Amino acid sequence: MSVTHTDVTAGPAALEPCGQPDHPDCGIRDVLDRVGDKWSVLVIVELVNGARRFRQLQRAIDGISQRMLTLTVRRLERDGLVMRTVYPTVPAQVDYRLTETGASLTHLVKALADWSLEHRDTIAQARQAYDAQHPDNEIR
Description:
140 residues, mainly alpha, three-stranded antiparallel sheet, 6 helices, 3 strands, globular
């Protein structure tokens, strides 16, 4: 956003939905499958501050299992968002860092985090109101 930018976005952004006859697969689903899951986002957030070893990532991301972290970093590496470096030591040391493409996601992740913080109370109130009106609903 420029220093002189003063417009406030009040309405929704103009987005074309996937699945239209002339727009069958715009790639959004494929990308969101990767960067939309909570573990990938948390790994990206952790790697913003620089390279991390596997155990450092595991300790920093509360609740992630070794298997899930392994799958997550492999998927992020496959997608070109994370780079895995193996150092020739005994035992071998491995670290993970964001690629240039992965680093370019960080402003979007930060925007989502900022939005979440800004709307946290409103969402909590909406959930309480919904739960009060639908006591038998199992969404929670």
